[in-house]
Amino acid sequence: MSVSSTQSFSPARRARRRPFPLHIVVFLAPAVLIYTVVMIYPILASLWLSLNHTADGVNTFVGVSNYQRLLGTELYVQPLLNALKNNLIFFGIHMLVQNPVGMLLAVLLTLKLRGTAVYRTILFTPTVMSVVVVGFAWKLILNPAWGVQRSLLTPLHLQALDLPWLGLASSALTTLSLISVWQNVGIPMLLFLAALVRIPEELYEAARLDGAGAWTVFRYIQLPLILPTVGIVSVLTFVGNFNAFDLIYAVQGAIAGPNFASDILGTLFYRTFFGYQLQPGDPNMGAAVAGFMLVVILIGLLIYLVAWQRRITEVQF
Amino acid sequence: MRRAGSSRVLAHLALLFYCLIALFPTLMIVVNSFKDRVSIFAQPFALPTAKTFSLDGYRTLAESANFPLYFLNSLTTTLGSLLLILFVSSMAAYALSEYTFRLNALTALYLSIGIMVPIRLGTVGILNLMVSLHLVNTLWALILVYTAQGIPLAVFVLTSFMRGVPRELKEAARIDGASEYRIYGLTLPLIRPALGAVTAISMIPIWNDLWFPLILAPGEKTKTIVLGASAFLGQFVNDYSAVLAALTLAIVPVVILYVLFSRQLVSGITGGAVK
């Protein structure tokens, strides 16, 4: 039943031809409508707004001049580059810590140990909690005023590490990244686990017969077979990280302190759009920052599709 | 054989160690929220005893914040969005899996753009839209945004599950003269696990979101629990009992929900994202 949905609705034609499957439209319309009006249209409208200048409620098309301002004037480019750099560090720490730890935990969970389900539930718990709550909980624990950190470090003779990690410009971003890693490690863990349990048992048995150790099994059986998942996890991490906002806003406020040391694109977007302290907000420039973020995310997706997926296919054939 | 045994112990130790890391901050918060101010600082690791037990924090909370209202707002928003997501996505997924029509693949592709492109990038446009619809500072604004955000993944997961429903069942119903809408209704109970998975996977980001409540519904009457908690935490930052109590109230309901839904959540994440 291959009928175009653009076909005429007129009753006369309907009587002559096959009846138009109106129910397909009824089934699809609500989802497509809400999705288009509330998601696709606003994204396009934002992009359009980034090409306009609004004065006294009147939009004037100004082409790419907002982007030129964003990338070419001291006021905008300096914070933008700072946020981009910080965002890359934020992403780098997730890739270097969160995903390997998630993979390790997933491999451990495939050993069919007693209590695997309980471990899995506990390890995923931080992920379901609100970012605001997680941020504040860690802020309290790392706050020298409470002394939790001190009482943990003193018995280990690590008093030198008893520093206000979130308050120092040199360590705030790394600390926030690690808090985010702590919270989100459950996601790569689950995705790797799902890929690992699909590996046929025969492969493990063959390896065992050959006397392969755990590392060999991981290196030559598990890792190659979960490579596609490594790609998916990386791209999900990328999109999530370049879209992050809540944790930094909850812990350090819109200023992303100390002294913008933890500013990422999400917090910069918020400040540019809504303004802060004495700087008024600018919807057009805010939209331009969102446009910039979209470009960054699309570049990431493109690299994944072109480079990673192609490599995977080459590995497989 | 012996080697396998010792590596098992090592695996258990590693997992236990990481469980400790995962639970430690939460336990610190919950346990200390039931202690008096002095022992929160003096013995942060001690359990509350008859002497140190105190509900001061919860009392401050009850006096100074609209937490029951915030909670209700979060509940309304989350349930409303989930119902809409399940309803419209299951219909779309039914159409995409059941019928072959010219725009089928294109519609599926169009709907899946949203899995990768974050809705947040449309914030400026969403705010303008909600202003012109007079929906700012209403829960409807949030419900619509979360529904739009949830549709792509829900359609994706449900479509693949709906493809698994045997064709014969639907053909038999058609021969009996059932309408297409009736047949859609008949398939829903068959994909209940998928609906559960979509519920679990969509619920958490909606309940936990800060960005859209902050932007679309920051009014006192429409604050969600996350926004209310973040405002409260900022204001009472030095009152440890109150802050710990607020954090505990924000943690406990989500963790209970998670434990109840954990199986569906796992199957939702693993089934939906890796397919």
What does this molecule look like?
- The complex is a heterodimer of chains A (317) and B (275).
- By secondary structure, chain A is mainly α.
- Chain A folds into two domains: 22-63, no CATH class; 79-316, Orthogonal Bundle (MetI-like fold), CATH 1.10.3720.10.
- Chain A contains 15 helices and four strands.
- In chain A, the strands form two sheets. In chain A, strands 1-2 form a two-stranded antiparallel sheet. In chain A, strands 3-4 form a two-stranded antiparallel ribbon.
- Chain B is globular and about 75 Å long.
- Chain B is 77% helix and 0% strand.
- Chain B has one domain: MetI-like fold (Orthogonal Bundle), CATH 1.10.3720.
- Chain B contains 13 helices and no strands.
- Chains A and B meet through α2, α4, α5, α6 and α9 of A and α1, α4, α5, α6 and α7 of B.
- Chain A: Belongs to the binding-protein-dependent transport system permease family.
- Chain A: It is a multi-pass membrane protein.
Low-confidence segments of chain B:
none
Shape by Cα distribution of chain A: globular
Taken as a percent bin, the fraction of beta residues of chain A is under 5%
Largest interface: A-B, 91 and 94 residues
CATH class of the largest domain in chain A: Mainly Alpha
Based on the structure given, which CATH architecture of the largest domain in chain A is correct? Orthogonal Bundle
Query: Order of SSEs of chain B, N→C?
Result: HHHHHHHHHHHHH
CATH topology of chain B: MetI-like fold
- Count of all domains of chain B: 1
Query: Which whole number gives the mean pLDDT of chain B?
Result: 89
- CATH homologous superfamily annotation of chain B: MetI-like
Please tell me how large the radius of gyration of chain A is: 25 Å
Derived structural class of chain B? mainly alpha
Outline the biggest β-sheet of chain B.
none
Largest sheet of chain A, in brief, is: 2 strands, antiparallel
Question: What is the share of helical residues of chain A?
Answer: 55-70%
- In helices, the fraction of residues of chain B equals over 70%
> What string gives the helices and strands of chain A in order?
HHEEHHHHHHHHHHHHEEH
Rg on CA atoms of chain B, Å: 24 Å
Low-confidence stretches of chain A: 1-10
